[in-house]
């Protein structure tokens, strides 16, 4: 895959990386299909990463000291980042990074030590001094420029305890568009070998943020979700590191969810009718303000959503019935069209808000043989954002809002539950009764995730590898009339084993763990078989 070739180019000739010393990096959070890790410690923390955005490329290091500590990596990165224009361009280096410029003196590369300006082929900067030129840097990368950014956010987070690091740390105002974020978590140090393939670890399967503050804002004044009536919704799958459930049935099925994507935010409701419900008006007004982020800009609402316009206008914001426009603060639409998919994704990545509503069950029923994960229009927009609509149905009801602290701690999240199941498999940790009750949901979600078939995504291939390892470690129960399924864990392995086999790059290696007593039947190659269709 293309990402593997990118990784080989950047890490070529490197056997190990020495992260020992006083320079403590940030753990990087990766989302979307383009970002991939370059260096990962044994805890599954990402210390270096790379990505694409638009026509350009980005390399992010978890500490600015790494710009001089790893000259071989920087030289490789410059080769990978250099636009294919035939002539090597100028590498701009931020003024405070004189030592980086000195390190590059031996390279046949023309460098300039100055603030960012147009005309550079590549720009090297720390993550602390980019706030004033963030928009220019994003435009530079989108147009084909290369960017190396290095820094850590944990000390910034300690100095700004009330701030949202994912949104407000200066470096994240640039790198986030490419799906890479500096987190407030410190990375573990050591000497780590450089694997031949993109590194992955089950320990890295977790959520990238505590969503308590977001839920407190969104659920202010909300005690229940009244979705009673005839509207039949779809289930939402929340699979991204920066995506989170908001409204969930007692059975653990999500019907409203949120996410961070790039610099922007997303709210997904699993029926478009919910966006015009008076019974949900308090939540909807909170949600539109969360998406607007106090810009007080124009809220563009798809002209067919008159009910949503009526409810959202109560927010006091400027709500207009209009198609998608780049000058909007928030766009409100349905999930039934992907006509402007790329434009909407770019709009959100660069700071816009998206409220999107719709269901996928009717589409799934009327498109037999199609894959709702890959073919449903709304999922073309949503999958990159860590959300998707499933083909099953959810009936209406009156659902109480759980206590936020408890919800954050005990509520089901696909990535957290998969992490716990991997701990159970790899470390022998016992699952609680509550976690045992979530295994059926986990099996369904694993199967749905695998059906995305996004083999060019490092996140997806890492998940396939993790689930393949689990199948090999646990095995698939050999079920028959005399040996029925005994537990929720057996159900999960039956479900996951089948789907892993379908998407595995080496299905023959998986098969013995799915069918353990295969008869050793003879095989014949290059044989001609005559088939008659006469059934009389």
TrEMBL record:
Transmembrane residue ranges: none
InterPro entries: Class_I_gatase-like, TCAF
Residues in the signal sequence: none
Name of the molecule in the record: TRPM8 channel-associated factor homolog
Domain of life: Eukaryota
Organism this protein belongs to: Cirrhinus mrigala (Mrigala)
């Amino acid at each position: 895959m293309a990402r593997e070739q990118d990784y080989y180019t950047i890490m070529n000739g490197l056997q190990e990386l020495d992260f020992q010393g006083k320079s403590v990096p940030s753990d990087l959070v990766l989302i979307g299909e383009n970002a991939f890790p370059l260096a990962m410690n044994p805890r599954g923390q990402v210390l270096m990463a790379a990505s694409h955005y638009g026509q350009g490329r980005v390399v992010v290091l978890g500490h600015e000291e790494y710009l001089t500590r790893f000259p071989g990596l920087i030289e490789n990165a410059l080769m990978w980042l250099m636009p294919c224009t035939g002539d090597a361009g100028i590498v701009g280096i931020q003024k405070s990074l004189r030592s980086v410029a000195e390190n590059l003196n031996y390279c046949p590369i023309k460098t300039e030590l100055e603030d960012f300006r147009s005309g550079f082929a590549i720009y090297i900067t720390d993550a602390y001094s980019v706030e004033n030129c963030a928009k220019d840097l994003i435009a530079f990368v989108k147009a084909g420029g290369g960017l190396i950014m290095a820094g850590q956010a944990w000390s910034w987070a300690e100095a700004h305890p009330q701030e949202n690091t994912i949104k407000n740390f200066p470096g994240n105002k640039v790198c986030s568009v490419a799906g890479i974020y500096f987190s407030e978590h410190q990375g573990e140090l050591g000497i780590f070998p450089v694997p031949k393939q993109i590194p992955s670890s089950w320990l890295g399967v977790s959520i990238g943020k505590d969503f308590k503050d977001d839920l407190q804002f969104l659920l202010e004044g909300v005690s229940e979700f009244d979705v009673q009536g005839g509207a039949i919704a779809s289930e939402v799958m929340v699979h991204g590191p920066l995506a989170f459930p908001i409204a969930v049935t007692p059975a653990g099925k999500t019907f409203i969810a949120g996410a961070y994507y790039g610099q922007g935010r997303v709210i997904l409701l699993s029926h478009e009718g919910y966006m015009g419900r008076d019974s949900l008006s308090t939540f909807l007004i909170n949600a539109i303000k969360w998406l607007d982020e106090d810009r007080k800009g124009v809220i563009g609402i798809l002209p067919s959503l008159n009910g949503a316009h009526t409810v959202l206008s109560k927010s006091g914001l400027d709500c207009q019935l209009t198609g998608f426009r780049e000058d909007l603060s928030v766009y409100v639409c349905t999930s039934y069209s992907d006509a402007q998919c790329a434009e909407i994704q770019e709009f959100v990545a660069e700071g816009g808000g998206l409220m999107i509503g719709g269901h996928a069950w009717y589409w799934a029923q009327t498109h037999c043989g199609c894959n709702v994960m890959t073919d449903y229009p709304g999922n073309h927009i949503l999958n990159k954002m860590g959300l998707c609509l499933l083909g099953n149905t959810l009936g209406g009801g009156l659902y109480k809002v759980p206590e936020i602290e408890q919800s954050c701690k005990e509520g089901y999240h696909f990535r957290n539950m998969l992490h716990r199941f991997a701990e159970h498999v790899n470390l022998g940790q016992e699952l609680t009764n509550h976690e045992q009750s979530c295994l059926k949901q986990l099996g369904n979600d694993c199967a749905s995730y695998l059906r995305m078939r996004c083999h060019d995504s490092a996140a997806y291939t890492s998940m396939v590898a993790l689930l393949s390892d689990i199948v090999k470690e646990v095995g698939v129960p050999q079920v028959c009339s005399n040996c029925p399924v005994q537990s929720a864990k057996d159900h999960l392995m039956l479900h996951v084993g089948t789907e892993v086999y379908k998407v595995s790059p080496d299905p023959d290696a998986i098969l013995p763990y799915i069918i353990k007593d295969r008869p050793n039947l003879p095989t014949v190659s290059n044989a001609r078989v005559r088939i008659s269709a006469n059934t009389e």
